[in-house]
Amino acid sequence: MPELSRGEVRHLADLARIDLSDAELDHLAPQLNVILESVASIQGVAGDDVVPTSHPIPMTNVFREDVVVPCLTPEQALAAAPEREDDKFAVPRILGDEQ
Amino acid sequence: MTEAKLAGSASDRRPTLIDFDTVLESFDPAMGLEVHVELNTATKMFCGCPTGFGAAPNTQVCPTCLGLPGAMPVVNGKAVESAMRIGLALNCEIAEWCRFARKNYFYPDMPKNFQTSQYDEPIAFDGYLDVDVDGETFRIEIERAHMEEDTGKATHVGGTTGRIHGADYSLIDYNRAGIPLIEIVTRPIMGAGEKAPLVAKAYVSALRDLVKALGVSDVRMDQGSMRCDVNLSLAPKGSGALGTRSETKNVNSLRSVERAVRYEMSRHAGILLAGGKVLQETRHFHEDDGSTSPGREKSDAEDYRYFPEPDLVPVAPSREWVEELRGTLPEPPAGRRTRLQAEFGFSDLEMRDVVAAGALDLIAETVEAGTTPQAARKWWMSELARRANDTGVALDEVGVTPAQIVEVQRLIDDKTINDKLARQVFEGLYAGEGTPAEIVAARGLAVVSDDGALTAAVDAAIEAQPAVAEKIRGGNHAAAGALIGAVMKAMGGQANAARVREIIMEKLA
Amino acid sequence: MSWIRKTAAEQADALAAGEVTSVELVQAHLDQIAATNGDLNAFLHVDVPGALAQAAASDERRSAGSPLHALDGVPIAIKDVLTTEGLPTTAGSRILEGWIPPYDGTVTARIKAAGLPILGKTNMDEFAMGSSTENSAYGPTRNPWDHDRIPGGSGGGSAAAVAAFQAPLAIGSDTGGSIRQPGAMTGTVGVKPTYGSVSRYGVIALANSLDQLGPVTRTVLDSALLHELIGGHDPKDSTSVPTPVTGLIEAAREGAKGDLSGLRVGVVKELQGDAWAPDVVERFEESVDILKKLGADVVEVSLPSFVHAMAAYYLILPAECSSNLAKFDAMRYGRRVTPEGSPSAEEVMKVSRDAGFGDEVKRRIIIGTYALSSGYYDAYYGQAQKIRTLIIEDFRRAFESVDVLVSPTAPTTAFPIGEKVDDPLSMYLQDLATIPANLAGVPGISVPSGTSREDGLPTGVQFLAPVLEDARLYRVGAALEAALLEQWGGPIVPAAYQSKESS
Question: Does residue B299 surpass a pLDDT of 70?
Fold first, then answer.
């Protein structure tokens, strides 16, 4: 397991949209490396013949009928909005492009 | 991100565009088309909220599609069925087992900050669609068709342009968030050469027809229920290689697809011929001048951290289900066109015009409703096409039904009205004045065949134009046209022209 | 003896017999909460008017002869991880401070439909990340046995509330031991049902493929009563198993008779050794001896992949939670922190998330982001999912030769508050024995096994059963419980919370 540098931790925090301060980086980066070092032990434990499990109880084809159910009212939907304008959520200016 | 990056580099602002024929002398284009089709299911992909277009903001949301803490998704079975039918119609394999995956990225119009999509296990894969361009058939290979969900819609407020850059803040309506989407991705389309722009357009058009025939989407590009991204690259002529591609997003009309390919070919060639390198980037298409411009650079380097959606279980369609769905597929559009052309007796040229105008289904319905193919074609391709063009709507939205056309044609056939009066009947139909018969009565459009009125009008015309009358008496029967015209004019176009000619001949010949 | 000392089953019987009203029961528990919550901080929110109104409605149903359920009128507490319409739900996080959900989770809805008055919401480690409840943004919960010690976690609030007679029943959630380990720390019973057998709809997800709601009570029978009430298929949860949960109450009553003859019990070889405190092991061995006396065949079994369970868990969980917690971006709900100037949405998200999340949440989000990154996915997340397969295989093989597995629930008794906050790895070790069940989806129960000779604090013993065989846990758990109660001459109760009348 390669050790995570401060820069890498900052990059990961950026990806996760967390604005880590320098003090937080100092505090968290060594802890993260300790954790990563301990979980790295699983590398190579299971070979190619082992099928990964994403669901502990195997099930398939769980579907819903295409039938409309009642929605929230706009009041309910917007009740917790930090900011709103009429019946829309107001958010700060968006920099990036839509995907 | 700095403002300079937002504006793009100098060469992006003023790209050197190479003449299309010159591009083809040096390069082979390769295209990849990614089309998103919004399904017309009653409810969203993962919750029971309705999907209707144009509802009041945030009235079609629930804890699941709003991404509230604790809410969970449940797959809409109808959407899975629609996805499989699209896959089958595109000659794809249907996965025996596949999963949904989370595509992780932050964006305010996406309630969970991940999109539930499919990653390396699409529901349908390895298919093709044959398209015709000027009599040449191109086989477009389909890499995959997968299921995913739409995002909400942001409106940008403030600034000067109303566009995303420079806005003060944004307003979000999540009604569209979670509406089922099928993304259909082609393999690189190579070898189209000078026809590349037309092939791209023909593919999107054919895909639209096919999806429409399946009845699984409205495929309205103007309303966003079908959206297209165009990938394009150039490689040195004859090299068989793939160059660096640009990805032009949201190209949302058939004409724009063709223009976007053409523009990007010219732009790429401009860069390559000057010894530059094409940037692999996302670009925006501009409807006004058909150009493209660079999108904002992504700081996240496109690492979407896909992993299987743990709140959903795998989709494993039984082969019986797949075959049952295969049985519900409509006649493939290309085969249907060949069949209808033969049945209707249209020439190749007529057929091409009909298809290009999007009139084939309407003509078929009109014939079905009880008129001849030629009559149906005449009205849809002339009067109604003109109306659609003048009012800027699609042909099937001009407000006239196949049944009404049949009735108009019947009024002509029994000589109640003539072709010219029929146009006034259509005007009445556009205005919603009632049935064709009611419009004829209300507007007093019926042709006059009463000999008394016609004889009086003929007498008046002869008196007004003695020289013409003299010519007819002298055996020049063609001169009768002038008198007929005068009578028609005097009677407001409502005279039975054939009877008028008979009366003139009785009097003068 | 006051009503709060009674088990839920006894309270239900008293309601049915007309010996007490639901309003009296609820008021007695509210009084206990008022008297003790200042010390314990087990409840984050107490709904006095709501609980009393629900109790009054329950009493009306009783007098009309139409109770909704055997437990109609018996009060309950709900871990703050489950949504409750109209009641604040924070998951112990600052970022959700003041959030009032517009909808009920399925288990909340089932509790309401059965007429149990909801006393309030219990404290927890932020987003259920932790084993001590110290990671709550609203202050730690204290262990009723010793106020300077942790009550376990993440569900320390529910466990402490039940141990301190603030509630006879509580809902917990268990992702890697968050119901069972607090049970061991507080001398209470906690059950993690088979994955998918209790709906997760409305549970603020930590790790979707591991999370499961379950009962927190003082007796095995009470857990069975609550488990049957909340369990069963839910079409709103795609991972909900269609098989109904039945026979649990019957199994608990049967087990209490004390006959385990024919039951094959496997002691897990990998859950022994130096990591286990001697006083914990002593109590554990005593329990195993009792099982033998009750007629069980006890053998040692090996589940070799257990040694990798922790590492796999601390990759799968962070990966899933890094994605789950992305929704907390201060755009639609939650606390928005706006920096100076005219920040972009992206900047507001970053600052709000930094201010709204605690250290452990940040650690796990960053680890998860790393584990899912392209280039690392196969080596970490992919590998962890394979370990999961190996652990499932180990369980399958073990259950060919035994009916249930047994181990101590936690390696130590409750440790002092503050001891491990900045030592994540040693905190993670608390869940050594409980994690494998979550990875494999099998059910588990923790039953009090006595108190430590060293520090007088409670210890717990854990049983694990095959998927959907939850009833086996109740049979063996109730048998051990009955034998121990007889040995102790009554339940073990924290000194400060012993009944003044009965002491």
Answer: no
